Amino acid sequence: MTEMKRIGVLTSGGDAPGMNAAIRAVTRCAIYKGLEVIGIRRGFEGLLEGDVIPLTSRSVGGIIHRGGTVLRTARSERFKKPEGQVEALDRLRELDLDGLILIGGEGTFKGAWALHQRGIPVVGIPCTIDNDIEGTDMTIGFDTAVNTALDAVRKLRDTASSHDRLFIIEVMGRRCGFLAAQVALASGAEYVLLPEMPFDLDHLCKKLHYARRQGKTHSLIIVAEGVMGAQDLAAKLKDTAGYEARVTVLGHIQRGGSPTAFDATLASRMGAHAVKALLEGESGIMIGSLCGQMVTHPLPVAWEEKKPLSDEVLSLMEMLSI
Amino acid sequence: MTEMKRIGVLTSGGDAPGMNAAIRAVTRCAIYKGLEVIGIRRGFEGLLEGDVIPLTSRSVGGIIHRGGTVLRTARSERFKKPEGQVEALDRLRELDLDGLILIGGEGTFKGAWALHQRGIPVVGIPCTIDNDIEGTDMTIGFDTAVNTALDAVRKLRDTASSHDRLFIIEVMGRRCGFLAAQVALASGAEYVLLPEMPFDLDHLCKKLHYARRQGKTHSLIIVAEGVMGAQDLAAKLKDTAGYEARVTVLGHIQRGGSPTAFDATLASRMGAHAVKALLEGESGIMIGSLCGQMVTHPLPVAWEEKKPLSDEVLSLMEMLSI
Amino acid sequence: MTEMKRIGVLTSGGDAPGMNAAIRAVTRCAIYKGLEVIGIRRGFEGLLEGDVIPLTSRSVGGIIHRGGTVLRTARSERFKKPEGQVEALDRLRELDLDGLILIGGEGTFKGAWALHQRGIPVVGIPCTIDNDIEGTDMTIGFDTAVNTALDAVRKLRDTASSHDRLFIIEVMGRRCGFLAAQVALASGAEYVLLPEMPFDLDHLCKKLHYARRQGKTHSLIIVAEGVMGAQDLAAKLKDTAGYEARVTVLGHIQRGGSPTAFDATLASRMGAHAVKALLEGESGIMIGSLCGQMVTHPLPVAWEEKKPLSDEVLSLMEMLSI
Amino acid sequence: MTEMKRIGVLTSGGDAPGMNAAIRAVTRCAIYKGLEVIGIRRGFEGLLEGDVIPLTSRSVGGIIHRGGTVLRTARSERFKKPEGQVEALDRLRELDLDGLILIGGEGTFKGAWALHQRGIPVVGIPCTIDNDIEGTDMTIGFDTAVNTALDAVRKLRDTASSHDRLFIIEVMGRRCGFLAAQVALASGAEYVLLPEMPFDLDHLCKKLHYARRQGKTHSLIIVAEGVMGAQDLAAKLKDTAGYEARVTVLGHIQRGGSPTAFDATLASRMGAHAVKALLEGESGIMIGSLCGQMVTHPLPVAWEEKKPLSDEVLSLMEMLSI
User: Fold this and answer.
1) What domain of life (chains A, B, C, D) (predicted)?
2) Which of D53, D58, D64, D52 is nearest to D23 (CA)?
3) Domain presence at residue D171
4) Quick one: which of B53, B51, B50, B40 has its CA closest to B12?
5) Residues A195, A224: contact at Cβ < 8 Å?
6) What are the pLDDT digits (tens) for A130-152?
C-alpha cells in the first residue's frame, strides 16, 4: 500500500439532497489529514473526459445547505463497458489519484466496484432519496425527500378536505416502498400502496367504500412509483368502482431542496468516515450507518441483499387510518 | 332597506389559501358590529341543503393560518338552474338571513349575481389562485400559490443544474398567465409560455439552440396550463428538435398551504370591507384592492372585462434570461 | 389485573412538536383495540380539576400535523405534593380510568412514576425537544426543533456572510448539548459550546483569532443554553479579546411548528406501542426507540442515567470548520 | 452627457432579501444593453479601497434566490466625511465608471446623493426590510421579512395556546411600524404596539384584563423595536399588573432567507428600471413602485418625507382580535 496523497471525489446517478454536504465533508476532512482533493465533474462521464477541478476548504464553503451537486452528475454509457473502465484507469493515473470516493446509489456503487477490481482504492457513500441500499439504515437524501413529499401532501390535504375529494399521490422510491411508507405514515394518509405488498384492487375499493359509509368525506392514497402510475390507479378505480380521484405526481421536486438537519449531519459523518477508511487502506467498501454508528461493508452488500420494509409500518397504518 | 341582523357567509369554487382568513374576518367584523353570522357549508350546494353552522369569534379562532376552507366548498349543478336559485331563496328566508357574503372566483360571483337579481343583498370577495378577476389588482390566494410554485421550481432547478437538463414545469392559472409569469420571473426561469402571447414553437427551439451554444447547460421552461399541457410541449420539442425534457405538473399543491402574510392581510381587509359594504346597504358588488385601497365594483366587472397582463414582465424576461 | 376498558391520555411539561401526533396515535390505536379514550387537559393540573374530554377517531382527525398540544399543558405545584397525588387518584377513579398514557419529558415521567407507585397503570411517551431522556435514541420533537433552529441559523448565515460578522446563536436543550451539537454540525457553524465540554474562553479566542488570519470573514458560534446565555458570551468575548458579536436567542420558536416526518412517524409508533404495552399489563414504564425498534424500560431509567453525547460529533466539528 | 459604457453596482447598509436578485437584474439588463458592469464590494468602504470584481451574465447566475448579498455590505465612517467622498470620486474615475447603481436604504441613498452632487450619475434602488422609504409602496426585502416573522409567530402561537400564556414578540422596523403592523394583522395577534401610535400601558392592561375575563386563555403582543424592547415591556406589564409574559426577540433572522416571489420580482423590475433610467441620462434619483408602476423621484424624497402607516390596519386589528 502506497501512501495516500491525493484523492478524487465524484457524484453519480440521480442527485439527492446532501450530496454537497458530503462533498464538503470529504474535502475538508481530507485536507485536515494532509491530502489534496480533486473534484471530478459529471460522474464517470467526467472522469473519462478528465473534467476536474481542485477542491479547497474555501471552495466548498457555503455549499452544505445547497441542493443538487456542485460537481454535477451524469449517466455514462461508455463507462459500463470494459474499454471505458480501462480508459477511466488511465485517466485516474494521469490525474495522479491514489483513491476515489464515490457518492451515489446502486449504479454508482457497481461502477465503484469495477474500479476496485481493477486495483483502484474506492469507498462509496450511499446517497439516494430511495433509501434502497442494504447495509445502512438510511441513505443520505431520504429524510429530506420524505419531508418534501410530506409538505406537498399536507397542502393536498387542505384541498382534499375542502372539496370532500379522493386524491392519489404518486411518490418516488424506484422498486422500494420506503419513501411511500414513511410519507403515508407521517401525513396520516388513509391508504398506501407499496411494491412490498400485493396489489389488491378489490380490497382497496372495499376499504374506500367502508370509509365513505363511516362518514369519511375525503381520503388520500399514496402510491409508490414501483407499484404503478397514479394515473393508472385512478383509471382502475374509476373503471372498477366509479371513484373519481384527483391525481398528483410529485416528481422531481422530491430530489431538490436544502438537506434536512438529519441529512446534512449524516452526509458530514459519512464523508468523514469515508476519508478515514481510505486512509486506513480499505477499498471496495461502502459506508453505512447502523444504529447510529458508522460502519463499512463490501460494496456488493448494497445490491446483493434486499433491504426489508418493516411490517410494523403496515399494521400501524391499518390502525391509524380509522 | 331593512336593518341587517343576521348574515351568511360561504366559500365556493376551487379552494384557495386565505379563504379561512376571509371567513374569520367576515365573522369577527360582523359580530363586532352587532350581527349574527351563519356559515353555509359546501357553497351553493350546502345552501340548497340548508347545511349551516353558527359562527362565533371563538369558532373562527386559530383558522387564519390554515389552508383550504373550514366551510368546505363544492360545485352545484342544481344552483345553476333557475329552479335551484328559487329554492336557494327559500332556504335563505328560512334561515332568516338578511345578506350574504360569498368568497370565491368567477363562478361564485355569477351565482352571487343571480341571487342579487332575485333581491338578496350580496357581496363577493375575490379569492382564487388564478388572479383572473378584473377590478382588483390581486385576488386572495394568488400570492401564496406563486410562492408555493416558486418553492417547487427552486427545488427542480437543483436537479436541472446538477444533471444539465431541460425541465418543463406546468403551473395553474386557468386561461390566464398571471401565475406562470410571476413564477417565471421570480424563479429566473429561462422561458415562459403564456396564454396571452402566441405560441411559437420555432422561436422557442431557436432560443433553446442559441442558449446551448452559449454554454447554458440547463434550462427551465414554465408553461401555463392555459397554453397546453407540459407533456404535450415535451412531445412537440422532441418531435421538432430532438430535445429531451423532464416534465413536472405542479397540480393541486398550488392550492394548499398556509396563506402568506400578503394573502392573510388581504383576506382580513377584504372581509372587513365586505361587512362594511353590506351594512351600508350595498349589494351586487365585489370587493377589490386597487393601489392598496379597498374599492367596490358591480359584480359583472369580474367577468365582463379581461384583466390584462403587463407587457413589462415579458420584456423583462427577455433581458433577464441572458 | 383487571380488564382494560377505558384509558386516559395527557400531555405535560413544555410542549414539543409531535405531541398531537402522539395523542392521535394513542386515541386511534386504543379505539381500534376496543378501548374508550378520555383526554385530560392541562396535564396534572387538569387531572386534579377533572378537566377532561372524550376523544374519538374523528376528534383527533387532522391534528397530526399541528404544533403544540390540543390537550394543552401546564405546570402543577399541587400534584408535586403527596396530597395532590392522592387527590389525583380519586379523580382517576371517578373518571373510571383503567390506565393512563402520559406524554412529556422528565418531570412528566416523575409524576407518572408517582401514580404507578400508588397503583395506577401508567406508560410514558418521551416527548421533548431537548432529547435529554435516556432509554431512547430520540425523543419526539427533537428532530423538528433541530430543523427549526437550522432554518434560523441558515438565515443568520446570510447576514453574517454579507456583513463579515461574528454571530452568537443561543439554542435550547436544558442541561444537554444534543440540540446545539446537531444544529452546529448541520449548519456548518464554526464553533459550538456544549454543557458536556469544559468552557475555555482562551481557546475560543485563539481559534477565532486564527480563523481571522486565515481569511475567514465571518463566523457562527452556537451556544447551548446550558452553558451560558448568548449575551453573557458576547460580553466575555468583547471584554477579553475585543470581538464585536451579534446575538440571537432563538427561544420558543424551537418548540413550535408542524412535526417533521421523523417526529410524526416516531410519535405514531410510540403512541401505538404505549397502548399495546398498557393492554399487555405493563406499568411504570416508558417507551423508547433503540436502533429503530420500539422498546420499554422502567420509568426511572429516564432520569437516573445520563444520556451521553457522542465524541464523534465534537471531533467532526473540529475538522469540518477549517 | 457622455455615452454610458461601464457602470458600477454596490449594496450598502443592512442586508435584505432580494439584494442579490437586484444585482442580477442590474447586471443582466446592463449587459443586454451593451454596458460593462463592475461589482463594488462592501459598499462605500469597498469603493474607497477599490475592492471590485467584473460581473457577467454567468457570474450572477443562480444568485436570484440567495439571501444576503454576494457583493457584501459594510458601514463606512470614512465616506461620511467630505474627504472620503472626494477620494471616492477619484476611485470611480480610476475605475472608469460612467454611472453607479446603489442598492440599500436611507443611509445608502444619502451617500448616493453626495456622489450625485459631486457630478457622478447615480440611481438608488430601495432595499430594506423596514419599508421606511417614502416614494415607493414597498421596498425590496419587506415582504420576505414579514413572512419570516409571520412564520416565527405562528410557531410561538403553538406554544402560547398550549400553555395558556402571554407572549411578547419584538420585531424589527427601525422607527417605523410597517413590519410590526403587517405581522400582527397576518398572524392574528391580539395586540400590536407601533411607533406611530402613543404607548398607553393602562389601556393595554385593561384590554388584557378584559380578554382574560372573556375566556381568552392566551395572547400575543407584537411590539415594534421602535417602541421599546420586548424585555422592557414585559417588565412594565409585570410591575403594573402582575402579568407574566414570555419574551421573544426575532432579531436578525428577519434579514435572511430566500426572497419571496414578490421581492424577487420587485428586485428584478427595479434593477431593470434603474439601468434604463441611467441610460436615459437621469441621476440623483431613486426607483419606486407606486400602484404597481415603476417610477422615479429625486433621492431626497426618501428621507425628507415620512411614509404614513394606514389607519385602516389599526382599526382592523381592533375588530379582528375580539
Assistant:
1) Bacteria
2) D64
3) yes
4) B40
5) yes
6) 999 999 999 999 999 999 999 99
